[in-house]
Amino acid sequence: MKPINFFALVFFLWGVIWVLTLSEGTVRGIQQTYYGTISPFLKAGSAMDMKVRNFLEEIENSKDLGNQLRAVEEEYVKLRSIEGRLRELESENNELRRALQFKEKQRLNVIAARVIKRQPSTWWETAIIDRGQSSDIGAGVPIIAPGGLAGKVDIASEDTCSIILLTDERCQVSVQIVGTPEAGILHGGRGRYGEEPRLILRHLSREAAILPGMKVITTGKGGLFPSNLLVGTVKEYTPGPVEGVALVQPSVNFNELGVVFVIAHRPEEEEG
User: Fold this and answer.
1) Structure-derived torsion over alpha carbons of residues 138, 148, 217, 243, reported in degrees to the nearest 10
2) Are residues 150 and 248 in the same domain?
3) Which of 110, 129, 148, 223 is the most exposed place for a label (fewest CB within 10 A)?
4) Residue 119 sits in which domain range?
């Protein structure tokens, strides 16, 4: 045995014998001293452990609260979407009701159609409807909408049609001003998207007695558009050296052009 190991063993045995020879009171005192020394550290460790547990519980609670908030936000988004859809359906329902009332008042044989496409760049010029040759609709057929004349069919395909709106300068209509002998040719004035549509009535008398608010209707001349279709009301009249010119406010709301009606043919009593 090495000397170092021998002395370590002797020292250990001596320590054991010394402890065994101590009195019970001495041992208890040593224990009290020991626990008294480490007790503050144990309490501090316990308090720190409690704080850590509370902190972790708060984090867990905050996660639950975050999940609840996200669930509430998702539900709110769903409700807003449903509300928006209900408003759309209500608007469509009102539009269809107005269209039905308008159709019931007509003496014309018409086919209902819906505007399915419009471009901002040609907002006042053209539109696409969901009816075509399969519904016996061809080029040049008049289009009316709640309020009055809306335009005419330009190109007809199998299931859709491209229509020229009344507000396009290519759409020219023979009209007259109600309550006066004045008649002329009305056409659209190309405006920009977001601007008010313009209708221009030319070939009026140089100094006609035309006042704002007077109604403008179709004459039926030319055979394309039936007579007595409301076109709009006079907004402004300007006399000139050769002819008078009037600006006309359309009777159709072209900003909200939804349901329209294609005139299939003239009523029987007018055909004869």
Assistant:
1) -90
2) yes
3) 223
4) 110-271
Choose the weakest-confidence range: 17-21, 52-56, 267-271: 267-271
What does the block give as tokens for 43?
């309490």
**How many C-beta atoms lie closer than 10 Å to residue 254's C-beta?**
20
68 with 179, same domain: the answer is no
Contacts of 140 (CB under 8 A, 6+ apart): 152, 153, 224
Q: Is 12 a member of any domain?
A: no
Same domain, 218 and 95: no
> In the 3-class helix/strand/coil scheme, how is 156-167 assigned residue by residue?
ECCCCEEEEECC
Three-state SS for the chain is: CCHHHHHHHHHHHHHHHHHHHCCHHHHHHHHHHHHHHHHHHHHHHHHHHHHHHHHHHHHHHHHHHHHHHHHHHHHHHHHHHHHHHHHHHHHHHHHHHHHHHHHHHCCCEEEEEEEEECCHHHCCCEEEECCCHHHCCCCCCEEEECCEEEEEEEEECCCCEEEEECCCCCCEEEEEECCCCCEEEEEEECCCCCCCCEEEEEEECCCCCCCCCCEEEECCCCCCCCCCCEEEEEEEEECCCCCEEEEEEECCCHHHCCEEEEEEECCHHHHC
Residues 101 and 124 in one domain: no
pLDDT score for 171: 93
Domain assignment present for 9: no
